[in-house]
Structure formats: C-alpha cells, structure tokens
Predict the structure.
Amino acid sequence: MDSLTMRKPDDFHVHYRVLPMLRAVLGYTARVFGRSMAMPNTVPPIRTASDAEDYRVLLGVYNKWKHEVFMAIKLLASTTPEIIREAYLAKVIAGKVYPVGVTTHSDDGISDFRQQWPNFAEMEELGMMLSLHGEMPGVFVLDRELRFLNVLEEIATAFPRLKIVLEHVSTADAVDYVWRNSPDNVAATITVHHLVLTLDDLIGGMLRPDHFCKPVVKTPADRMALVMAATSGNPKFFLGTDSAPWSRKDKECAEGCAGVFSAPVALPLYAQVFEQAGALDKLEAFASEFGAQHYGLPLNEGTITLAREPWEVPQSYNALVPLYAGRIIDWKVEE
Amino acid sequence: MDSLTMRKPDDFHVHYRVLPMLRAVLGYTARVFGRSMAMPNTVPPIRTASDAEDYRVLLGVYNKWKHEVFMAIKLLASTTPEIIREAYLAKVIAGKVYPVGVTTHSDDGISDFRQQWPNFAEMEELGMMLSLHGEMPGVFVLDRELRFLNVLEEIATAFPRLKIVLEHVSTADAVDYVWRNSPDNVAATITVHHLVLTLDDLIGGMLRPDHFCKPVVKTPADRMALVMAATSGNPKFFLGTDSAPWSRKDKECAEGCAGVFSAPVALPLYAQVFEQAGALDKLEAFASEFGAQHYGLPLNEGTITLAREPWEVPQSYNALVPLYAGRIIDWKVEE
C-alpha cells in the first residue's frame, strides 16, 4: 500500500496547556485531527463553565485550522452538581477525575471518590462523559491501574447510564477488564506511546525523561495487550494520545515532569503499529469512529491521507522533543 | 541506644571514577570504611595488572586516610588467563564481569559467558574473586537479574572453588537463590539504596534521576526481601554500596546516567535500616565481617562510632547530589 486515505480522526485526550505553550503545540494536533478534547488540568485548572468558556476563547484565537476543540472540566472536591450543570449548558462534554497525586497537576485531585457521586449522578442525567485517570493514589506505581479497576467497576455499576472513559490504559489487566468484564458504558483510550514503549525505553538503558509519563509505560506483555486491544476492532478502545508537552528544562531536571509529546507523530505512528499488527484496516475505526460513537458525536466529514514513506521525525518541534525524535516512521501525513 | 561503636566496615563495591571526580569522592568512603574495592569500569577501563598499578598509585596520591583500596580488573573478551595471573601477582583481588550493555560503561562488556571460562578456571586456581554484575543483556529490565541466575548457577557449579560475589542484588528472586539454593562459593552484596528505594521513588512521582541506578530499584516486595537478607545474619549477604557519583549534568539530561551517590550517607542509612528492622545487632557482621570472610581477608582493627542523633543530609557534596539529600537520617557518623 502506498497511501492510506481515511476519515479525519479525533484525539479525545490532549494537553494544550496555557500560553505560551498552547500557541506552540495546538497546530500539531489541529492540522491532523478533526476534533480533540482538551484536558482541564491546566494551571490554573478548568473547573467551571466560565473557566471553560475562557479557555475555549483562548484556543479559538490560535486555532487557525478546521479543527474543533471540546472542553472538559476538572472535578474537584469543591465541584457541585450545579457546577456540572452549568458546564454542560456551556457545551462542556466531559468531567475529568484526577485521583490525588497520581499525575501532573493533581495535587488538588480526588481522594474520596464517593464524595463525587452526586456529580456523577448529575452527569449521568445530563449525558456528560466521565473521563478517568485510572490510577489509585498511594499504591505502588506499577499496581495503581489494577487497583483502580475496583473503583471504576463500582462507579460503572452504580451509574449504568453514565458514559465513562478509562483514559490511557497501560496494563493488560485494564485491557482485560474493559474488554471482557466492563459494562457497556465503559470504554478506554489508548495512547500511541503506550503502544510502542515499555519500561525498557524509560529505565532499561540510560534514563529517558522523554519517555516518562503517567501512567508509566509497563511491561512487554502489557504493551502487547494494548496493541491487541487497539487493533482488535473492539469499539471499546479508541484513540486518545495524551500528548503532553514539556520544555526540556521541565523534563531534564532533578524532578522531571510526566508527559510524552506525541502530537506531531501520533497518527503515522499509530498507522505503523496497526500495520505491524496486520490490522491497518482497523485503524480508521479506532481513530475516527469508536471515540465519536462513545461520545455520541457525529463522525468527521473530511479525510486525511497518510503516505507510506519513511519519515525521519525531527529532533524537536519548537524546542519540544517529540516521541520518536530522530527515528524513522514508515508513514507520513500527506500535506 | 545513644551510640553504636563497631568494627571498621568494608565497602566491597564502590566507584571512584578518575580525576577530577576521584579526588572529590574518595574521602566520603575513606573516612568511614577501613577498606574498599574500587570498580574497574572507569574510562579507560582497568583491564590489566599495569592498569591496576596505575590506578592504585593515583588513588594513593589522594588517599589521605587510613584506608586501603583493593583493585579489581574488568574482564573483557580480550582477557586471557595470563592477564588474570599477572593481575593476581599485582595484588588485584577480583575480576569483574559486566554483561554487555547492562550498565555504565559496559559497551565492551561480556556477551559470551562461556568464552570467559578459561579465565574463571585461572581465577579459581589462584583464589581470585569473581565479581558479577548479575543482569542478562537483552532481557526486559525488570527480569534481567532473574534471568542471570541461570548463568550464575552454571558458573558456580562448574567452578566449585571459585569464589563469587553477585553484586548489588535487587530482587527477591536473587535473594532467594543466594540464600537457599546457591552453593557455598556464592555470596552477594546489598547496596543501601536498594534497601530504601523502590520504583515508586524513581518513577512513582516526578522522575528522579538521583534514584536511577542499575540494577534498577524494584518492587516493595523485592525491597523487603533485601532488608530481610541484609539483616538476617546470613554471611552470604554483605555490604557493598555501589556508590556511583555523577555530576548533575550527567544525571539531569536527555539520557541520564545510572548510579546513586551514597558514600556520604551509607553507613548511617544502613544503621537506620537495620534498626527499623529490629536488627541493629546484625549490622557489624554485615558491614565489617561477612565480606572480609568471603574475600579471605583479616577483619579491620579499628572501630567507628555512630551517634543516634537526627542528621539532615546536605543537599550536595562537591556539587554531587547524595542519596537522601535534604532528608533526616536517625544516625550520624561521629567525627
């Protein structure tokens, strides 16, 4: 195959941050994806309808592409059903739970999941998505996702009409739960970096801050389970890059920040993973259909074409180191 | 207990590097330990009697303490039994195997362990110690030590009089093998950082280059097995810090170097670990007897006293970040 033309994909999990980072990174997603969902763990966080409105306006100023950004709010201990309702009326499509301390800017995250139940009930009623960073605080880093599955199951069972996304699944355990044991209201996003990296790439050779993210990349068996899920054609798994830019100063320091900047390489690299798994025919559904279907959104109208030609990923974009910097990818977005 | 006076300990595994680093770090070990064994993976490596002589002289120039440094040579594909013999005659007490690519300066390491057997036979004959970085190249990072145990067992069985040290054990599997299944000629060193750190301290929060070492720190269960082994009174486990200094520039960068600089805090921190395990009475044997016995050396003559008083570890020593920088340790070396 020389090229692949597919429906414009959606990225249901991306970090644009605030200015000046936002200006530097928005285009890498907006040029390729038809729509995206912006994560609300900015500084300051996006907590309310008003915050979301401000952020939408800010993105609009710099969004020169035919690209729509969906808003989410960060659920905090102070969030109320009224705040949820107002956000929904302001076209916020999701509320995101960050368990306390498990990732970037989560010091104000949730420690008591039960305390959020009135909010979940309101979201269920309104048809607003619950987006979960699925890691249990205080647990050994490699076990956090597994231990969170009980919380997920409890929520999914208590609110059977609440639509839920378990974001950036990273373990075979989570894949197995979502695939075989979760109710219909649960789906999961899979990042491209979790499809191509393991702990070997983070700590197996020299220490690689560019491969440090949360949830951390895991074992070869976990990676293979993720590839299997992504390429299976099961609509419970869809694309969310969790592209998370940091300056080199924030990554290469005494306390490095978590996040992989994958936006510029995401779609070609997903294509490479799918092709290597013999499942290129499943890419379009994973990237452009299953997410929209779970969110209850129409599919994108336009198309995008990937050329099958070796592409050497630049060492940096606007001084940001991308995933696969300097490496060759078998696919390239056609301009 | 207000203080603990014990026989001068030995550190059978320490990295002094070359100048100017050597000058900056030697004293932190030499002030506290009666003797130490210097690792030979310097740049350039210590491969021969002549290299070892030069390194011994260099150390002698800067060694202003009542402290003896033992020499080891690095076993390479080019090492011959004659090289071994000459080294032995030059008072080199150990030959060290670095499997290729598993740690700092191991690109010239061993890929074919069988090829070393003539050297092992010579070392067995002479009574020279085989020191092993026990990780299997090419294997997933968390499984490397486990997979190396087969190699260790093969060597230990083929050369029953060859004395072997499995350095810096990091897993419950290695502890279990050494403790319950290894022949008499096998012992192991345990670093202080593997006794206090897990992957949570490396990748569980922010990325911490100061906690990055090889073998990488592992799970809570692994750490507990190491504490149990160190504090057990089993003479197969003894002290080797693997203190490995790097400049902040080498640690906090795009490809960070592996090594924890523990020399300034090692003995007080071992004491804290032993006390917390209710085994302070086992510290002296672990630190000052079992190693010397395995190496066939007399015990040190002098003593050292640790005061039981809170000690805040400095943020850096000569611009090097030590283990537990800025933290309080319950014990302090009395000057």
Observations:
- Residues 308 and 331 of chain B are 5 Å apart (CA to CA).
- Chain B is about 35% helix and 15% strand.
